[in-house]
Amino acid sequence: MYQYIGISRSGYYQRKQRNNNRSPRQLRKKFILGLIKTIWNKSNRIYGAGKITHVLNDKDAYNLKISELTVGKYMRELGISARYIKCHVQTTCDSDYNNKLVNILDEQFNPSQPNAVWCIDTTYIPVRNGFVYLTSIMDLFSRRIIGWDLSETLEVSNVTPLIERTKKQRHISKPMIIHSDRGSQITSEAYRKATSMMTRSYSKKAFPWDNACIESFHALIKREWLNQFNIYSYHEARRLVFEYIETFYNTVRIHSHCGFKSPKTFEEDYQLKHHKLQAA
């Protein structure tokens, strides 16, 4: 057995004796340190003390009782932390300040059902020879990214097909609100045609907080994921965006807005509850 686990007979008994000399408190701490490191690694080394604390205390996960303060202390001992890098490039060009563009949403970011309010925005991603541009559509109910596209220009021709694809994927059968800033792509005739059956809402003049949820997502994907890479090409950027959105953000990453569930799970729970109410 000792050869199988890679230690000598004497080494095994020495380790066992050391563990026997530890107090229950020391053993618990060692166990929790291991869990914290595991959770942090599974989150792509993204989660901070708050989210790790929730996972540890979750009765369906580890069901421990530990404070965020203690988790933060243990993370410092382990030399790990949440990832945060900040940078900014303007992507809203030639804004239209026409008073006819009304802010219908008015910072009401918590609709009661899916497909009631979408928001759309574009951000830049630095690559070796310049930038590529990520346009994302979020369902505000679950904060799920329900459509996205990566392009090499800020042309409206990249935005309108994305809207059409997203409408088909979400099986939209009735008008809904779609909120955006006042960029030239979003105020174009092509955009108005693509959203003709929707109620269009626009942020106030030079006031990005009106589209805070999608702006926050674009900050997240950069600081948690993209900014740790030296991205050389459009294709590499697209692969990284896919990995973050489709295999982590929508399906794994827990959100306080969703009751510390992933957006996908939050929507599925809503649909299950809705079907049960209909069947009753």
Quick recap:
The protein is an alpha/beta fold and 280 residues long.
Give a written overview of the molecule:
- α7 links the parallel β4 (177-180) and β5.
- It contains ten helices and five strands.
- The longest helix is centred in the first third of the chain and has 19 residues, at 24-42.
- α4 packs across α5.
- It has a five-stranded mixed sheet.
- It has helices at residues 2-5, 9-21, 24-42, 49-57, 68-78, 159-170, 189-194, 212-224, 234-249, 263-279; strands spanning 117-127, 130-139, 144-151, 177-180, 199-202.
- It is α/β, with parallel strands linked by helices and 280 residues long.
- It has two domains: 19-78; 117-279, Nucleotidyltransferase, domain 5 (2-Layer Sandwich), CATH 3.30.420.10.
- Mean pLDDT is 83; it is low at 88-96.
- Strand-residue proportion: 5-15%
CATH architecture of the largest domain: 2-Layer Sandwich
Percent of residues in helices = 40-55%
**Count of all domains:** 2
Structural class: alpha/beta
The third-level CATH topology of the largest domain is Nucleotidyltransferase, domain 5
Mean pLDDT: 83
Q: What's the tally of helices? A: 10
- Strand order in the sheet with the most strands: 3-2-1-4-5
Q: What's the name of the CATH homologous superfamily of the largest domain?
A: Ribonuclease H-like superfamily/Ribonuclease H
Low-confidence stretches: 88-96
- Major beta sheet, specifics? 5 strands, mixed
| Distance, first to last CA | 58 Å
The CATH class label of the largest domain is: Alpha Beta
Number of strands: 5
| Cα Rg | 23 Å
Question: H/E series, N to C?
Answer: HHHHHEEEHEHEHHH
